[in-house]
Amino acid sequence: MLKCQGLTQTYVSGGRNLTVLNNITFTLERGGFLAIVGPSGSGKTTLLGLLAGLDRPSSGTIELDGHDLGGMTEDERAILRSQKVGFVFQSFHLIPTLTARENVQVPLELRDEPAEERAQDLLSRVGLGDRGHHYPAQLSGGEQQRVALARAFASRPQVLFADEPTGNLDAKNGSSIIELMMGLNRELGTTLIMVTHDRELASKAHRMIRLADGNVVEDVTIP
Amino acid sequence: MNLKFVFKLAWRETRASRRRLSLLVGSVAAGVAALVAINGFTDNLRTSVSSQAKALLGADVAISGRKAFPDQIERLVDTLIKGDSATGTRGAAARVTSFAGMAYVARTSGVRLVQVRALEPGYPYYGDIITSPAGRWGSVAMGGRAVVDPSLLTALKAEIGDTLSLGQGRFVIDATVSNIPGDVGVATSIGPRVFIAASDLPATNLLQFGSRAEYELFVKLPDPSKAQTIADQRRVPLREIRYRIRTVEDDRENLTDSLTRLGNYLGLVALVALLLGGLGVASATHLFIRKKLDTIAVLRCLGATSGQVFLAYLVQALAMGALGSLVGAALGVGIQQVLPFLVKDFLPVDVKVAMAPQPLIVGIGLGLWVALVFALLPLLGVRRVSPLVTLRSAYEAAPGRADPLAWAAFGLLALSVVGLSAVQVQNLRDGAIFAGGVGVVVLVLWLASLGLIGALRRWFPRRLPYLYRQGLANLYRPSNQTGTVVLALGFGAFLLATLFLVQHNLLREFRVGGATSASGRPNLMFFDIQRDQAAGVDSVLTAAGHPGSAPVPIVPMRVASLKGVPVVQDSVPRDTTEAEEEAPRQRRPGGWAVRREYRSTYRDSITDSEKLVAGTWWSGPRGDGPARISVDADLARDLGVTVGDEIVWDVQGVQVPSKVVNLREIDWGRFQTNFFIVFESGVLEQAPQMLVTLTRVDSAAVRGQIQRQIAEKFPNVAAIDLSQVQEAIEGVLAKAALAVRFLALFSLAAGTIVLIGAVTTARLQRLREGVLLKTLGATRRQVLRILVAEYVALGLLAATVAIVLSAAAGWALAKWVFEARYDLPLGSLTGLTALLVLLTLLVGLWSSAEVLKRPPLAVLRSDT
Fold first, then answer.
1. Residues of A in contact with B2 (CB under 8 A)
2. What mean pLDDT do residues B163-173 have?
3. Which long-range contacts (CB under 8 A, 24 or more apart) does B806-813 make?
4. Judged by CB atoms within 8 Å, which residues 91-110 of A form the interface with B?
5. What is the nearest CA distance from A6 to chain B, expressed in angstroms?
């Protein structure tokens, strides 16, 4: 499903080369659940961005469901994302001018698919069936993240990227989000890739990669 | 590409920033309103001229000249009106003699210089002259009665029924004229008209030797459709004997041309409003996009292509532009109804307001185009928003290569400004000059704001109290509003100040001063004095305690030969084709200067309004050679002569050789007797001539009294009361200024909208800062002082730069366009600056009112 080979990312900062990721190589099977952990500044988020095709690596290759991201333009990657990828962010990133339901509809509308019924259905699945007409500002943090989750699954993605999905939530809301994510993972066979520094959360994944200073220091399969 | 998504997104995104989007709509609306109003009005004007053209001339053909009509022309007219024996229709002709004369009413002791028009029955053949009381126009022909302009009654404090004296003639004022086709209101306020019957003319005894009159013959043809052919055939032979022939069509073309040009240039003011609106669109879009960075990044993450996002916001900007254009067009149609009232005194036709589709379509089209072109540049940035922003809010894209599309958009913008200006004035060169001027002003304002930011950073006034430092620091901190505010406010201010300066300097030229002025300049002028009347006029003046200046002689003459080459005054051969006939002035350099009549004088000294620029003034007794003359420097250039050249003059049939011995520059702006040609004395004394004398009388009552005495004793002598003329001119200019200022208001409106937009931009940040400061314990007063410091500094910078720029522009206009001397009214300009600063402060505080009102908590909560 996801293959990366010799992934290296360097930035020029203050006239010096700064290596954020150093020669990362791994493969992830379809339906897998990977947690990327590590302290702040270890390169977790950079790795997630590269894997999702939001940025280009300095060197190395990424293959997403058989597509070589390196050979694609920004817009080709965007179209690939609309077909295969879902996102959940730490700060939710709902579009403030759209209602909850409209937010969920966006990925479907991008692909010109019938959207309203499915969006309503997804919102019911995350327990917000009656809140579809509310704007993000009218929802609590936990509710917003559940809308984000419904949006992420709207286009039946093959891969879901989650960046600290519980980082801005309290424990109760956080665990209910994780439950939802894992349920959808099981049900739809979606591959999950999650960045977190919450050990307990990471322990729920099938596999954990630990980063430190841009290097993989641990790669374990969790039974 | 999925266009459905694009339109959906465009629509849903209007929910955000309604305030900002309404600014965008407002910006476009103000400009389009001005454009539609002015272009619609110009269109109405053209239509009205076309439909009223016949009445403007009052006849099919008119022949005019400076001398009584010779037999040759009388015979011509006889043939013209004889008509077709087959149809039996006959034409008609009416002679109208016009000249300046003094009118007075004994009952009120009122006296005034008037334009006398002595007419034969029948005139006008087309169009109706409306009198008050109605239907009295015909009474003129009955003799002994006069119909006058209403302004004369006011000037003389007279009423209908009073007896009016014109020379030795006495007339009962029978009616006033309410409307004459082709009337330009302001013209009659300077010289009111008195209409009398031609048969009464000899009784006035006013047309004596040397008096200047205009003779016109209005002809109604048996077959009006032949008018143009007849005029074209007779034009050349008539010009050879110094008469002019014109038709309805000639008049219509001239009028349409000049009115269209006038409309086009007025339209430039509207265009400025539209361009300011464009600036508003650009800044609103820029800010809108900046606020939307997160949304754009999320959309990119979810798989929207950069093209889709770009298109969605472009569609939105266009929709707002369309809405603004429609609102503007509706407003413009409303304003179009008002414009005729503002300018009716300047127009020879009654403007019928009608909605023409073309100005509407053009206005809406231009509004859309401006919205598109100005939104394009900031919108292109959308394409470069990285989806990575979702992961790192502080993410900033590495400074990329220059965007070629941005350059293209910029080029399109510049081309549009030049193109729009050129289309508006229908002239590529003027359009380019105008666009260049706009560009320079924008550039200077922009540089000034950059300069301020830089200077503040470098030499920050650290000693100021904290609150003021905080306010000033707002001017250069990230996402400051300095550039936009300075541009928006500066441009509007520049325009207003320039209009004001031009008006001030034009008016100043005419200011000779009435009783209030301490200057001793003459304000009463008597002309058409015959030589044997000079002593008598002077004794009247001396007896009244206001001795006149030494009478200045005026001798009419024409050029007979130039540098030994005879000037064939009528060198146009009879078979000249129409095309060549059209442009005689261009074909022969200095044509007009050679052919015109000169009114010259003779004296042996130079006056204080003249400056010698070449050669020397003559001295010593007159020799045997040609007469020594002094020539106006500009005229010498037109004639192609310089010091040492010989000119032979034709003085009423007598050839007088002369030699140019010096050139003068003349200040024509003063009310004084100035002459292109000055002869040495001892040459022209015996030639037919009139005299002019000037005096200064401070009291208006005494001025009237003296004029009356002179008018009674010497009926042919005309007087000009310069104070009256000045008043009339000031009235005219004030009306013109009102019309122009009304249009400038649109620019100010557009500028204010842009200003509000710019201020709104920074509003959120101010809100956050203000609330934070309040949380930290700042009082509302203190927050207010910070805002005041910021906006006063901004307003001061924008206004100062704008006024310095307008001072330069005003100077350039005075020097090259109006050829007037230049004066800077510092007091008024300071007042204007203060006003602009106040405006900035008010707009700033008004849009920041929330900062002061909102409790800290509400803002902090909505922050997350």
1. 109-112
2. 91
3. B806/B493, B806/B494, B806/B495, B806/B496, B806/B497, B806/B498, B806/B500, B806/B501, B807/B497, B807/B501, B809/B437, B809/B441, B809/B494, B809/B498, B809/B501, B810/B497, B810/B498, B810/B501, B810/B502, B810/B505, B813/B498, B813/B502
4. 91, 93-98, 102, 106-107, 109-110
5. 21
Contact call for residues B795 and B482 (beta carbons, < 8 A): no
Out of A102, A106, A112, closest to residue B302 by CB: A106
Residue B651: phi, psi to the nearest 5?
-100, 100
Q: Closest approach of chain A CAs to the CA of B278, in angstroms? A: 26
Joined together, the tokens standing for residue B428 give 């590529």
Cβ distance B4 to A102 less than 8 Å, yes or no, reads no
The dihedral over CA atoms of B279, B3, A152, B380, expressed in degrees to the nearest 10, equals: -30
Q: State how far the Cα of B274 lies from the Cα of B435, in Å rounded to an integer.
A: 13
Instruction: Tell me whether residues B862 and A137 touch, CB distance under 8 A.
Output: yes
Judge whether B350 and B55 are in contact, CB under 8 Å: no
d(CA B594, CA B413): 48
| Cβ-nearest to B388 among A54, A81, A107 | A54
> What single DSSP character describes residue A198?
-
Query: Which residues in chain B have their CB less than 8 angstroms from residue A48's CB?
Result: 391
Residue type, B511: R
Which of B295, B303, B391 faces A81 most closely, judged by CB atoms?
B303
Q: Are B227 and B61 in contact (CB under 8 A)?
A: yes
Helix axes B780-812, B428-458, angle to 10 degrees: 140
Write the pLDDT tens digit of every residue in B671-704: 677 899 999 988 888 888 888 998 888 887 888 8
Do the Cβ atoms of B16 and A91 come within 8 Å? no
Q: How far apart are CA B580 and CA B592, in angstroms?
A: 16
What's the pTM value of the predicted model, to 2 decimals?
Answer: 0.72
Distance in angstroms (rounded) separating the CA atoms of residues B394 and B28? 34
For residues B606 and B631, the answer to whether their CB atoms sit within 8 Å is: no
Element (H, E) at A161: strand A159-163
CB contact under 8 A, A78 and B295: no
**What is the value of ipTM here, to two decimals?**
0.87
